[in-house]
Amino acid sequence: HVQLVESGGGSVQAGGSLTLSCVGSGYTYSNYYLGWFRQAPGKEREGVAVIAGSGSPGYADSVKGRFTISKDTAKTTLYLQMNSLKPEDTAMYYCAAGKGTDGPLHPGGYDDWGPGTQVTVS
C-alpha cells in the first residue's frame, strides 16, 4: 500500500522561503517519477517540479531558478526547497508518485498522491 505524506507548508511573506517534505512508503523511490504539484482555488492542478528515478529534475517555467526538488532515497523522502516565494505561489501543494506517462509535469501520469500541504504567500 503506497502512502505519501507532505509537511512543511505554512504562511510566509513574499520573498521568503519554505521547504516541503514528503515521506513515502510502499514502493521503491528509484523506480518512479516523483513530483510536486499545486492547485490554487479555481485552478487546475499543475506540475511544479519532478524528479526522475535517475535523479534528473524538471521544473515548470514559473518556478525555475527559485525552486529545487531533491530526494533522499534512503529516507524515502522528497523535498521541495522554495525560495523567493511570490503571492502567485499560494496553493495546496501535493507530492505524487507515478510513471509520468502523460509527461513528467502532467498530473495525469501519477497514480499516488499525498493529502497536500497548504502554502500561503502574502
Protein model, in words:
This protein has 122 residues and is mainly beta. Helices cover 0% and strands 50% of the residues. It has no helices and eleven strands. Strands 2, 4, 5, 6, 9, 10 and 11 form a seven-stranded mixed β-sheet that branches. The N and C termini lie far apart (37 Å).
Summed up:
This protein is mostly beta strands. 0% of the residues lie in helices and 50% in strands.
Q: How many DSSP E strands?
A: 11
Strand and helix order: EEEEEEEEEEE
Distance between the termini: 37 Å
The number of helices is: 0
The main pleated sheet reads as: 7 strands, mixed
Fraction of residues in β-strands? over 45%
Radius of gyration: 13 Å
Outline: globular
Structural class: mainly beta
Helix residue percentage? under 10%
- Provide mean pLDDT, rounded: 93
Question: Could you name the ranges where pLDDT drops below 50 across 5 or more consecutive residues?
Answer: none
Topology overview:
Layout: E1 3-7, E2 10-12, E3 18-25, E4 33-39, E5 46-51, E6 57-59, E7 67-72, E8 77-82, E9 91-98, E10 110-113, E11 117-121
Parallel strand pairs: 2-11
Antiparallel strand pairs: 1-3, 3-8, 4-5, 4-9, 5-6, 7-8, 9-10, 9-11
Task: Please supply descriptive tags for the structure shown above.
single chain, 122 residues, mainly beta, four-stranded antiparallel beta sheet
